[in-house]
Amino acid sequence: MILPLAELHIHLEGSLEPETIFALASKNGIDLPYESVEELRAHYEFNNLQSFLDLFYANMAVLRTSEDFKEITTAYLNRAHASGVRHVELFFDPQAHIERGLSLSEVISGIRAGLEEAEQRWGVTHKLIACFWRHAPAASAMEILKMIVTENHAIDGIGLDSSELGFPPELFEEVFSYAREHGLHVVAHAGEEGPADYIRQALDVLKVERVDHGIRCMDDPELVARLVKEQMPLTVCPLSNVRLRAVETLADHPLPQMLEAGLKVSLHSDDPAYFGGYLDANISAVAEQFSLTVSDLATLARNSFEGSFLDEAARKSRL
Ligand code: ES4
Ligand code: ZN
């Protein structure tokens, strides 16, 4: 059975498969420090979030043209559509690409071209979310955000990602208030490796509409009660949590307790090329591990649309 799903936590650059990294490197005349796809794949063993991010940022250097962005967006959407995705809210890291000399327009127009083609071909709808790096100064995020707003780039919302520990959400208060004032949606990674208090800051200071990961809320019963009361969407990525050792094993993942508590949880793939699979793989892994019922799976699928930024009419028509 394939349930219709909304994918709300997917980093475009995290869908870059090793084969594509080699193909783009060769096309763009870039020397990779690996002899083969197998040698590259052998590096996909991570101890924590940072050990993954180091490789993730190095690999995305093969993206050099607007066409490259279109190509990887299309490749991702082909794969996502096959796993039941009917709506996608796609993250990308503008700072990474601007740092390499691409313009915001080149990046966004390439991604948008891929998104629009998939909507025409399959009816897969989309939103595009620019994620700012929390390891970089807030001033860098603000500079790009102002460019997005003043040059009217086709962006639906902003997010906050990258290294979490030591970079509390409150550093980005101004960035998020500027985004909200200009009608952009706001989400943030919080409580992936970082403490429950970072989730509280994302709610109180950044005023996010959705929390990415959020699993560490389970350390704080008062926060759980609040998230349940507010029906705050949490985009949980089980295979990511295992591969980045946010949990010891899949059996230790708090998903069953989160569902039991009444949290508005949905399942997502994060960086599928790095963490062992796309949305379908994430769902089958937890369905098997925790013997989820059809009713649990339907709740998770419904939550994915209810947590999305589709308007009510569009949401109902997809469910
Ligand atoms: C990310 Cl898993 C994860 N966490 C934080 N930032 C990220 N960027 C890409 N994947
Ligand atoms: Zn993420």
Could you characterize what this model shows?
This protein has a single domain (5-308), classed as TIM Barrel, CATH 3.20.20.140. It is 49% helix and 15% strand. It is built from 16 helices and eight strands. It has helices at 18-27, 37-41, 49-59, 66-82, 94-99, 104-122, 138-150, 173-181, 196-204, 221-229, 238-243, 255-261, 272-275, 279-289, 294-306, 312-318, and strands at residues 5-11, 85-92, 125-133, 157-161, 185-190, 210-213, 233-236, 264-267. An eight-stranded parallel sheet has the order 1-2-3-4-5-6-7-8. It starts with a strand and ends with a helix. The model has no long low-confidence stretch (mean pLDDT 97). The site of zinc ion has 6 residues, from strand 1.
